[in-house]
Amino acid sequence: MRYYPAYLDIQKRKCLVVGGGPVGTRKVKMLLKCGASVTVISPVVSEQLKNLADSGAINLQVRSYQSADLAGIFLVIGATDDENLNRQISEDANRLNLLCNIADRPQDCNFILPSIVSRGDLTISISTSGKSPALAKKLRKILEDQFGEEYAVALQLMGAIRKKLLRRSHEPEAHKELFEQLINSGLADMIRNNQTADIDTLLLEVLGEGYAFDDLIGKADQTLK
Fold first, then answer.
1. Full-model pTM
2. Residues of 75-114 as b/e, b for ≥16 C-beta within 10 angstroms?
């Protein structure tokens, strides 16, 4: 393996995107989704980025990149169509030991971005180590069909159960068996089919009194229809 798989916590971290076109816009939206503090530098920017700047979601600087722009930055993404500029960004970042990704240029990156399937707090990543984005896209589509929004609700439910068990001083080592029983009993399928009564019966059998689906998830948070 060339790459070490990891998930980065970039909440409130300063991240820079150089490039304001469609690729840069996609990168910015993902960084914002993960809670980053985002600056965009580009002489030309998309309407979406202008709107984000107007709303205060990002810091937009409509100008050319300078090496000094990396001061205080945690992570930088180069998303321009200028190979020389992308190479400069990579060299500047490496000199400062910063995390750097150059779109579609794995040879100029010290980390690459996987193709992902996102279902609430569930994130499934697919990487071909930069060798075949087309294959990664194909696998993503397969996984999107296999893992629907019911898994987001199932994960939310598991988190609520775990939190309640811990509040009751339940031994953490005992959680594994309980959660395995829930998962192996077809919980996700029940959620997808809106079988709330069956879910409550399962929760009672496995966890005992006090664990009802509506109470744990909250009616306002349910995505079931």
1. 0.82
2. bbbbbbeeeebbebbbebbeeeebbbbbbebbebbeeeeb
The list of the chain residues with pLDDT below 70 reads: 169-170, 219-225
CA-based nearest residue to 20, from 48, 50, 44, 51: 44
Residue entry with tokens 């205060």: 56
Whole-number Å distance between alpha carbons of 120 and 116 = 12
Q: Check if the beta carbon of residue 17 is closer than 8 Å to that of residue 39.
A: yes
Q: Where are the domains of the chain?
A: 1-113, 115-147, 150-221
Query: Beta strand 115-119 with 99-102: parallel, antiparallel or unpaired?
Result: unpaired
- State the architecture of 1-113 in CATH terms: 3-Layer(aba) Sandwich (3.40)
pLDDT one-digit tens code per residue, 13-54: 999 999 999 999 999 999 999 999 999 999 999 999 999 999
Tens of pLDDT, residue by residue over 122-140, are 999 999 988 898 999 999 9
Q: What is the CATH number of domain 115-147?
A: 3.30.160
Closest residue by Cα to residue 159 from 221, 225, 224: 221
